[in-house]
Amino acid sequence: MSSGNEQQDIKRERILEASYQRFLHYGYSKTTMNEIAGDLSMSKALLYYYFPDKSQLYVAVMRKLSTDFINMLIDRVRQSTDLLSAFQAQIATHHEFMVNNYNFFDFFRLNEQNLPAEIWEIIGQIHHNEIEQLSNSLLRDVDKGLIKPVEDPADMIDLILDALHGVKVRSMSHKKTGFPLKEHLDEIYQKRLLLIGIFVKGLSA
Amino acid sequence: MSSGNEQQDIKRERILEASYQRFLHYGYSKTTMNEIAGDLSMSKALLYYYFPDKSQLYVAVMRKLSTDFINMLIDRVRQSTDLLSAFQAQIATHHEFMVNNYNFFDFFRLNEQNLPAEIWEIIGQIHHNEIEQLSNSLLRDVDKGLIKPVEDPADMIDLILDALHGVKVRSMSHKKTGFPLKEHLDEIYQKRLLLIGIFVKGLSA
DNA sequence: ATTTGATAAATTTGTTTAAAAAGTCAGGAA
DNA sequence: TTCCTGACTTTTTAAACAAATTTATCAAAT
Fold it and tell me: How far apart are CA B22 and CA A145, in angstroms?
């Protein structure tokens, strides 16, 4: 690991940071490689020296965001004492992540389907970690006798996460399919907290 | 009510039935007014005598489907004895409705957003009836002391319906955003039954 | 009041073209 | 050899236009 050049890694980071800012403020389709290069006072060609293409640059930024997210998630869930607080940690972490990076994801709205395969890998990793952490919390509570034994913990967590994901705002159900408007995130957050409370109670022994 | 002409209503029904078959088998965009007229051995112009335009014809068919659905829903929920079986009735009715009319809804996938306003009205009516029926079941169980009192029953049912709506298949989360493939409906149906069981238990006193 | 053939209007589909952005490369600098 | 650039080519996007299909209208017939 880390057999690479030091200077190279630093420059890669600078590119990633500049790209992140552009993507965050203007979205994927409205930022050009020329603009990113301009922000860094380097030539566009140099970007292609460090990254194969624009979509892979976006993927690299997203990968960094996802590891930050996963680390935060693991840290918070580990601090939690039971399944309910573990879910509350997951929901809060997810909420903050969406609020902080909302515009970054315009890439998703636009492309809707047929995103680069790497994106789905990353989403899969995040999901895998969520399930792992929450399954552990679930099993711990089962061992403590707080929760009724469950046939397949991972499937159960997966199902609950889907249910949480279905939460949306009451008014105007007829808008953008993709994902919620920024002004709705807080309402969704509160509803998820309410929902998970009922849910965990339903799982209790 | 029913101040209209008898013959006219019959013909309207025939048009609606022929249109339904076309929409169901080929979808909205792949059926032409000429084809519907052909099926009925009448001129296309006559269709416009009975319906203002193609989209309103689709809306009229959908309105008929929705009243059938609502009647079925009310009938089944009324037969149910408690909140859990009421939800099971709703889920089963919804499932059968989707299986039976799956292709009819390609109109939704294609247009995604910006559907005619009447469609959203109809969806609103369906949703309103679901909430009304299930809220009644909820309140009945609260009175019986089976379920813990709830601040706003309608909001609670709405939230649970959203949660049920979020259920999807485990594999291939990265496909069509719109709605699930026909081959996934059964799996979703089973998962919803599992979910609602936990949920209602979480609401119990 | 109903129905139709003929016709008009609108929408979709396909093509062309120009501009913009993505992506490449030979070669210079460190 | 590694890092970097200006100039270049290729691809994508957007607008404009025509052809074909479909929606929608209407005067006239039953």
Answer: 57
Mean pLDDT of the B102-112 span: 83
A157-167 pLDDT tens trace? 999 999 999 99
Structure tokens at A40: 């860094």
CA Rg value for chain B: 20
Q: Does the beta-carbon distance from A166 to B170 stay under 8 Å? A: no
User: Would you state the pLDDT for residue B149?
Assistant: 96
Inter-residue contact B186 to B168 (CB < 8 Å): no
Cβ(A97)–Cβ(A69) under 8 Å? yes
Rounded CA-CA distance A100/A82 in Å is 27
- Tokens of residue B154, six digits: 């309608």
Interface test with B, best of A131, A157, A159, A171 (most B CBs within 10 A): A159
Which nucleotide has the shortest C1'-to-CA distance from B30? D22
Measured CA to CA, the distance from residue B179 to residue B111 in angstroms comes to 13
Tell me the C-alpha distance between A200 and A84, whole Å: 6
3-state helix, strand, coil in chain B (%, to 5): 75, 0, 25
Backbone CA torsion sign across A138, A140, A145, A150: positive
Between CA A167 and CA A169 the distance in angstroms is: 7
Contact between chains at B191 and A159 (C-beta distance less than 8 A): yes
Report the distance separating Cα B57 and Cα B38, nearest Å: 16
Determine whether A159 is exposed, middle or buried from the number of CB atoms within 10 Å of its CB (0-12, 13-18, 19+).
Answer: buried
Alpha carbon A135 to its chain's center: 18
Give chain A's length.
205
Tens digit of pLDDT for each residue in A158-197? Answer: 999 999 999 999 876 555 556 789 999 999 999 999 999 9
Helices (H) and strands (E) in chain B, counts: 9, 0
Q: Cα(A170)–Cα(A148) distance, rounded to whole angstroms?
A: 33
Provide CB contacts within 8 A for A88, sequence distance 6+: A80, A193, A196
Assess whether B3 (CB) lies less than 7 A from strand C. no
Residues 6+ apart with CB under 8 A from A170: B155, B158
How many helices (H) and strands (E) are present in chain A, helices listed first?
9, 0
